[in-house]
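Ticket 4471: requesting a sanity check on a complex prediction with fe (ii) ion. Repro inputs:
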Amino acid sequence: MRRRRREQTSSSSVSFVRARHRATRSIWGPHVAEISRRAGKMVAICRDPLAFVQLYGRRDAMTFEQEVQAVARQGHDAAVAFVHQRAAEGDADAMMMLAQWRCWGHFGSQDLAEAYRLTEAAAATGHLPAMLTRASMLLTRTGTSRDADAARAIVEAAAPRSPLAAQHLAIADSIPREAPQPEILSDDPYIARIPGLISRDACAFVMARAMPMLQPSFVIDPANGQRVPHPIRTSAGAAFPPTDEDLVLHTVNCRAATASNTDVGRGEPLHVLRYTPGQEYRPHLDALPGVENQRSHTVLIYLNDGYGGGETEFPELGITVRAQAGDALVFRNTTDAGRADARTEHAGLPVTSGEKWLATRWIRQAEFHPWKAETER
Ligand SMILES: O=C(O)CCC(=O)C(=O)O
Ligand SMILES: [Fe+2]
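Returned structure tokens:
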């Protein structure tokens, strides 16, 4: 099951302790032996979530996910049926769980339109995570068409009750509206540095969001099926799934579109890289072998500074770029004929001290649906 997406991250053990506290308080009686007997039983019940549900119901005792886990002890089909039943009864948590399943094709086929319908219904109950997910779906065309104004209105409606939504608005609005003047490093192939494309607050936000998702770069060795270190990229990376593209990430993507003079609907999901000392991205082309809809442009957004090494280098062109947090580097990967342009081979040189963080937006020649990216990878 995918990562939880909640307004406030509360670890299940914490909510369990709270639930136990509430329950024990109500049985507090004068007789110490009886108290300890009952308390012992309570601890045993708390170790058995299913017993807990049967005794106390769930409402303020367990999260919906804990409840589903408890039912899952009766078997996987029972848990799936339970979620469907609760969703049909209008339970927003259940609708959101089903929406995730329909997005990712878990326990049934992928159906983005149904995922959007479920999220919209959950959001209509005032469920804050559903409201924010619905906004992301409107921004990324997940089961619906793109409507950035409607997405913003939803985040604004959530903000008085949701510090997270308020933070999204504040940080999105900290990003300059107009892309600053580019500094052209090469006319042909086009390479430009854009100082201050996004704010430092937005940089910090992107890093914080990517941090828990980072995975070391591996490839599968076809000879033995083993995971082996990626031959070209030694950093750790993560791409934001479309339902995670919040207002800040979307605004970053919009600025990458403006900086490259492309439509925001052509970009792949924003990808974050973190390099620690010794890590690098060896010389490579961003254009992909054998795809119809080629990566015509790349926008690199530098998220921090203060590290040693880690410059972006174009060896064929003799260009080396060192940037500050918030700066971007834009370049064209393809020739006018739409073929990979070998001159744009580039590398992230090894980091010698500190950490280097970077967000990459690979932009295709034509419209690119973000869910397609998942199926192609
Ligand atoms: O780390 C760098 O400077 C280069 C990154 C890069 O080439 C990419 O993300 O495609
Ligand atoms: Fe690259």
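Notes from triage: Residues 183-376 form a domain with the Jelly Rolls fold (CATH 2.60.120.620). Leaving this open until the requester confirms.
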